[in-house]
Design a protein that fits this description.
296 residues, alpha/beta, Arc Repressor Mutant, subunit A, D-Maltodextrin-Binding Protein, domain 2, two-stranded antiparallel sheet, 11 strands, 20% strand
C-alpha cells in the first residue's frame, strides 16, 4: 500500500478538509483528492463522507484511520533508525609507523573526526614491527606501516606510494643537488632503528646498487624519525627520510633534500589488518577518505 495515500487520508480525517490537508502536506487540493480516490478504489470501500460542510470518515474510514496511524508511525521510526545507521559514532583506534604516523595519517584522522563529530579517534605511533603486533593482537583495528612484515595473523594491502629522499641541513653541500654514492661515503649517515620502514627501503635500495650500509659512516642510529630529523637539523649528519614526513621542514627551510645518483628509493605504505576481522563503519570511512586524498 502506498503510504503517501495513507498520509493524505490521515491528513484529511484530522483536518476535516481537503484544502487544509493539502496545505499540511504541501501539495495541491486536487492531488489530495486523487490520492483518496485511488485509496478508496484500491480498498473497494468509501472512506470519507464528502456530503457535509466538513469531511468526516465513514465507519470503514475510522477503522482505516487507526491502522494508518500505526503504519505511518512505523514508517517514521524506520526512517529514523536508518538515518541513525548513517551516522558514524564510537571510537576508532589505529596504529601507524613513524613516517605516515607523523605526517599523512594525522591529517586524515583530523578530517575524519571533523566530518563525524560523534566519532572519537586514537592513533598509536611506533615502529612497523610494533604496529603489526598491535594489529595481530587486535589492539588496534588498522595499521598503516612502511613495509609488509610477514605475519600469519596480518594481511597487507598497498595504500599509497611514498618517495624517500636524502635529507640534510639547508646549508649543507648536498642541498638541492644530485650526488654520487662515493660522495655519500664521506658523510655521517644517520639511520633509524631496525624495524623502521624507511630503513628497510634504503637497505633494499643500497643492496640493489651493489653496496651495503657498512660501506658508509653509520655510527649514529637514533631511534625513530623524529630523533633522526632533529639530529640532521642540528648538523650532525644526513639521513634518508620519507619525503611526506619532512615536507613541513622543507617548507620551513630547516631541512633540504638531495638525491643520490642511481638510487631512487621509494616504498609502498601498507594497510595492515586482521584478515578475520570485519571492518567497522568508522574504519571503512577512514579507508574511503584515504583512497580519495591519497589517490595518485
Amino acid at each position: 500500500m502506498d503510504t503517501r495515500q495513507l498520509a493524505a487520508f490521515v491528513a484529511v480525517v484530522e483536518k476535516k478538509s481537503f484544502s487544509q490537508a493539502a496545505e499540511r502536506l504541501g501539495v495541491t487540493q486536487p492531488a489530495v483528492s486523487l490520492q483518496i480516490q485511488a485509496l478508496e478504489k484500491r480498498l473497494g470501500v468509501q472512506l470519507v463522507d464528502r456530503s457535509g460542510r466538513r469531511v468526516e470518515p465513514t465507519e470503514a474510514g475510522q477503522r482505516l484511520y487507526r491502522n494508518a496511524q500505526r503504519v505511518l508511525a512505523a514508517e517514521e521510526q524506520l526512517y529514523d533508525e536508518l538515518a541513525e545507521t548513517e551516522r558514524i559514532t564510537g571510537r576508532l583506534e589505529l596504529g601507524a609507523s613513524t613516517g605516515p604516523g607523523g605526517s599523512v595519517v594525522p591529517v586524515l584522522l583530523g578530517e575524519l573526526a571533523r566530518t563525524n563529530p560523534e566519532l572519537s579517534v586514537a592513533l598509536t605511533v611506533a615502529d612497523t614491527h610494533r604496529i603489526v603486533e598491535l594489529v595481530a593482537d587486535r589492539a588496534v583495528e588498522l595499521g598503516i606501516v612502511g613495509f609488509a612484515r610477514r605475519h600469519r595473523s596480518v594481511v597487507f594491502e598497498p595504500l599509497f606510494r611514498d618517495q624517500v629522499v636524502l635529507a640534510c641541513p639547508p646549508d649543507h653541500r648536498f642541498a638541492g643537488k644530485t650526488i654520487s654514492l662515493d660522495d655519500l661515503r664521506g658523510e655521517s649517515l644517520i639511520f633509524m632503528q631496525d624495524g623502521a620502514g624507511v630503513r628497510e627501503a634504503i637497505e633494499d635500495a643500497l643492496r640493489s646498487a651493489g653496496v651495503r650500509t657498512r660501506d658508509f659512516d653509520t655510527r649514529l642510529e637514533l631511534g625513530l624519525q623524529e630523533s633522526v630529523r632533529t639530529a640532521v637539523e642540528a648538523g650532525y649528519g644526513v639521513t634518508f627520510s620519507s619525503r611526506s614526513a619532512i615536507e613541513a621542514a622543507l617548507a620551513a627551510g630547516t631541512l633540504a633534500e638531495a638525491h643520490v645518483e642511481g638510487l631512487e628509493p621509494a616504498r609502498d605504505i601498507f594497510l595492515a589488518r586482521s584478515p578475520g576481522r570485519a571492518l567497522t563503519r568508522a574504519a571503512q570511512a577512514f579507508l574511503d577518505l584515504a583512497g580519495e586524498r591519497l589517490a595518485s
